[in-house]
Design a protein that fits this description.
With 397 residues, the chain is an alpha/beta fold. Helices cover 27% and strands 23% of the residues. Strands 1, 10, 11, 12, 13, 14, 15, 16 and 17 form a nine-stranded mixed beta sheet that branches. An eight-stranded parallel beta sheet has the order 8-7-6-5-4-3-2-9. Helix 1 packs across helix 3. The longest helix has 15 residues. It binds pyridoxal-5'-phosphate. The site of pyridoxal-5'-phosphate (PLP) has 11 residues, from helix 9 and strand 9.
Length: 397
């Protein structure tokens, strides 16, 4: 059993980052800056009132950044709560000695899992009365309070009590002797939309629904219950969205969820780097990589880089991204392959085998962000960050 963890059922699934014994910067790697995480938490906290808490969202291994390292640095910056998606993610952080309150944002519904949650001091998200009954029974059996957060669906249509059920069951839940409602929350679905700050935006409609439902259950009678609504984009919408706590992911990692929002001068915490493994010159009208979907228009010098889609770089980014070498940008050409990709270095003499190239990050005023990749691959930066595989060692700096 992992240190201090109660109930071993998930022991084999608690994923710690693999130890890297060889030089982790040999082929391709991710550098994570703890100082940037700390800086970003402080920056975002400067928007909040002193009493407003900060939940660092570290699910999906801290958006691919290493959940333990991110949590430690977020706490240094002033985060006082953590949010994870799964029971296993919560257990992992507890097994690593992290002590702050942890909320599981996903749904836990079996008696067994709720018991493990309780025994390891993790808070579940509750979306129906049946889960409340189970939590109360568990608390009763162990003669303790089971700390939970209730979720209300205000328009995301994912987890949470429907409006009617929330109002119908609230008194009932409050009266359970072995449940402590630590928080009540909802989740915004469109806080990064262009019109999000307008009075009649969907974000504002959700906010007003949240307020209305809380007022219907006379929430003012329960000042100790933490109310929370905002993700990163919601946090940037201003104080009306902050309530007692904000739940911040993307901004903490250094990226704005939308170009329409205030620029907080956040620092990207992740850099993705690799090495030049080979250099070759090919003639005019030669196909580069699988499918020959790039044909050279002139004699072309290529550098082969040791990273590919097996590391989590989408193949759909082929021919659409640029890499940085010594402060200059070079276009990636041809299909990205499983383990390698090519860049065009025609006319350049200072690229050598063994040199480091930056795929995401910055150098000498040049910058490539997951937002650029997300735009190019028609997805969102969250997905780009979460796609990186464990084959890429995380180097903590
Ligand atoms: C319930 C909940 N709250 C907060 C967040 C953090 O979102 P963001 O990364 O946009 O800050 C997420 C992430 O998806 C979430 O699911």
């Amino acid at each position: 059993m992992q240190s201090g963890l109660k109930n071993s059922k998930y022991e084999s699934q608690i994923v710690s980052r693999p130890l890297v014994s060889l030089d982790p910067t040999q082929r391709a790697w991710i550098e994570i800056s703890g100082k940037s995480i700390e800086h970003n938490v402080r920056k975002i906290k400067s928007l909040l009132t002193n009493s407003c808490k900060f939940m660092a969202v570290v699910k999906a291994d801290g958006y691919g950044h290493d959940a333990k390292f991110v949590s430690q640095n977020a706490i240094k910056g002033g985060a006082d709560n953590l949010g994870v998606a799964t029971l296993q993610e919560g257990l992992y952080l507890r097994s690593e000695g992290i002590k702050v309150p942890i909320l599981i944002l996903g749904n836990i519904y079996t008696i067994e899992d709720l018991l493990i949650c309780f025994q390891n001091n993790l808070m579940p998200t509750i979306s129906d009365i049946e889960q409340c009954n189970i939590c109360n029974q568990i608390g009763k059996k162990y003669e303790k309070l089971f700390y939970v957060h209730l979720k209300i669906d205000t328009g995301m249509s994912r987890l949470g009590f429907g409006a009617k059920n929330f109002v119908k069951y609230f008194e009932n839940i409050i009266s359970f002797e072995n449940i402590k409602i630590d928080g009540i929350y909802s989740h915004l679905s469109c806080a990064d939309a262009l019109d999000a700050s307008h009075e009649n935006s969907y974000a504002n409609i959700q906010r007003r629904t949240f307020l209305q439902l809380l007022s219907n259950v006379s929430i003012k009678k329960y000042p100790n219950i933490k109310l929370h609504l905002a993700n990163s984009a919601g946090t940037l919408l201003g104080n009306d969205f902050h309530f007692d706590m904000v739940r911040v992911g993307l901004c903490m990692y250094g990226y704005n969820p939308s170009k329409y929002q205030i620029n907080l001068k956040l620092k990207p915490a992740m850099s993705l780097k690799s090495k030049v493994s080979f250099i070759r010159i090919v003639d005019k009208k030669v196909g580069v990589s699988y499918g020959k979907n790039f044909i050279t228009s002139k004699k072309t010098k290529l550098a082969v880089i040791s990273i590919g889609y097996a590391d989590g770089i989408y193949r759909s980014l082929s021919n659409k991204i640029s890499l940085i070498h010594k402060g200059k940008m070079y276009p990636q050409i041809g299909s990205i392959t499983m383990d390698q990709l090519m860049i065009d270095i025609t006319g350049v003499n200072d690229v050598n085998i063994g040199d480091t190239v930056i795929l995401l990050g910055y150098d000498n005023g040049k910058c490539v962000s997951p937002i650029d990749w997300a735009d190019a691959a028609s997805t969102v930066p969250w997905e780009i960050l979460c796609a990186f595989k464990n084959r890429l060692p995380r180097v903590r700096i």
